[in-house]
Amino acid sequence: MEEEREHEEERRGMVDILRGQGVSERVLEAMMQVKRHLFVPPHLSDQAYTDYPLPIGEGQTISAPHMVAMMCDYLALKKGEKVLEIGAGSGYHAAVIAELIGEKGHVYSVERIMWLVKYSRENLKRAGYTQVTVTSGDGTLGLPEHAPYDKISVTCAAPDVPPPLLEQLKVDGKMIIPIGRYMQELYLVNKRNGIERERKCDVLFVPLVGRYGFR
Ligand code: SAH
What pTM does this model have? Predict the structure, then answer.
């Protein structure tokens, strides 16, 4: 109980810092709800509310809170939306998206490392998120069985936008995706009559590995 209260205070501190960086109130509210300490390895739970990426095993990382916040803001997530995430990892980012799309929305997340499929499912269950489904597979192929998606969030760096993801995005949908191997940039892709890409900022992510990713 005492520990939960401490975590809540730390979470408030994290949210206050993000507010100072211009994150929207909606996203801050969502991040105030998600217990990030349930998504990091137990020996790192005292660092759960610092603004850093943390190792989650298998050479992968949970993204820094400001990166999750920024990506959610760029996607302008709304209640009831259907979202595809590539790279479930710890499940944290999916949980923040789930808060934003509400109970009527759904997050489908694809993860290629089986151990992390199980890890993210357990974390999400423990934290109480029932509207997130984690599937094992190569996310560069998307998840055609539930397409089209309102929004797509790619949480690892791709060589370019994988064509199946573009196909599975609704017209007027948005995708956020880091592109590049060493020098990576975050892009917001809008699917209108054509495809518009807006470069947002420099970032650092683990690589997207797969058919339309890095080999
Ligand atoms: N969203 C995660 C961050 C995960 S890091 C979180 O909140 O914790 C990126 C993840 O992408 C890693 O777990 C990695 O295994 C996964 N990944 C890399 N290539 C992938 C692919 N082709 N398909 C699905 N997942 C992939």
Answer: 0.98
